[in-house]
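**Fold in tokens:**
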Amino acid sequence: MKSLSGNLLVAQSGGPTPVINAGLAGVLSAALQFEDNIEEIYGAINGVEGILNEDFIDLAAESQQTVRLLSSTPGAALGSCRYKLKSEQDLARILEVFKAHNIRYFHYIGGNDSQDSSNAIAEYCAQNGYEVRVIGVPKTIDNDLVLTDHCPGYGSTIKYIATTVRELACDCASLGRNDLVTIIEVMGRSAGWIAAGASLAKRRGNAEDAPHIVLIPEVPFRRDAFVNAVKDVLSVQKHCVVVAAEGIVDEAGNYLGANTAALDAFGHPRLGGVCEYLKNVVEESFSGVKTRTCRPGHIQRTATHCASKTDSDESFMAGVAAVKAAVAGESGKMVILVREEKDRYGVSPGLAPLSEIANGVKKFPESWVGEGGMTIGYQFVRYALPLIQGSVAGTDESGVPKMAVLRRVPVERLCPPYKK
């Protein structure tokens, strides 16, 4: 593969994760090592919207202290978006901007929909004879990207969820008298990976620990079975903790908590309300039972104070691997994490075609669901436990975490304003 010289552009998209900026730090750190190939390092503000608006910053102008702080800073440091490329006009504009700034390397840090955009950009540029190497960097707390063993961001999120469930269970145990049900709604539109992660709160071999019931989208919700499960728990426990994914569905496939009239840019219903639905079911089915609801909401994707070092390190590794692959001549692919077949846990970076990843959804394995469909089996624990190990060392500022703040030195615009 011939050597390619030009500028590198990186952007972030979709919902942030606790370690999304570790991936950005990996891209930046690796790019600085390839001076013969990469001349300038730019960041697009707010994902593909920043490319369309030609809103770039000079990442090489950032201090090393700021780059180091990225790995312990939540939120997308470059700004994110949920913009779906709408037409060939959008793609033509991106190509125009790439040419104007001699962008020869492009890395999009994002999940399913973001990698669909990466794939569209790679294909359009190739069809129009412009050489740009596009390598996606995985990111999603949902852990639903196909072909990768797991996704950067997932380990930290389930570490936070498991920690929260274990702590909340202590509070519940102190107040319950076989009459308290606590319902926790977690993220997970189409797959139950996050809800399943709550099961890591259980001490090994102790079935009495919370969560007592876990509801995931892959198993249709059956009201009678749920009520009987709650009844069984309260017959022997002071309290019952239920963890439910926001995307659980009934036997007809309808979301239990969704506003089907409000869709996002990619046509997905806006979810939220499962905990209230389940609360009503409990209150209608039991007399004298108190119910509490808890929605961690966006906190579960911003809790870098509870991030996993393993997860952060792997996010950084994915960013580095993306740059190395692009410089080596790869394009139209995404970095994946490949679990090594060894006694001790380890992963190595690999590559998979964007066309096989875009818009796919990796479902939670049916074989990992316990009998009855409301518990999680030991196979999942073996899979997930290595992902939550270690803590990310941050820097305090007056007792609270110090966050990276980019200088955002602007890059001169060279194209006329874009009219969508």
Q: What stands out?
A: The CA atoms of residues 117 and 373 lie 35 Å apart.
